[in-house]
Design goal:
Layout lengths: L1 E4 L2 H6 L3 E3 L9 H9 L3 H6 L7 E4 L2 E2 L11 E5 L6
Parallel strand pairs: 1-5
Antiparallel strand pairs: 1-2, 3-4, 3-5
């Protein structure tokens, strides 16, 4: 899976994108976020459960229960604000 990080998430995690191989137990967007959180302190802090983040799967907004596959593009970003 190609994972893209945007805005302050990119800074906190320390990279703009990475390729990961999901274990068979990872089935949903929420599972991917949980899997990333255990990769290290920077991930846990950036993706903490109290943080407000958004996810796009293959360039479409995704909900936590959206199914995922290893071939997907998974983008994580803060909410977009307007003004």
């Amino acid at each position: 899976m190609k994972v893209l990080y945007f805005a302050w998430l990119r800074t906190k995690i320390g990279c703009a994108e990475e390729e990961i191989d999901l274990p068979d137990t990872v089935k949903t967007v929420e599972d991917v976020l949980d899997y990333l959180r255990i990769k290290g302190d920077a991930y846990a802090e950036a993706l903490g459960e109290d943080k407000v983040i958004r996810v796009a799967l293959n360039q479409d907004y995704a909900q936590l229960d959206t199914p995922v596959q290893n071939t997907d593009e998974f983008a994580i970003f803060p909410p977009v604000t307007g003004g």
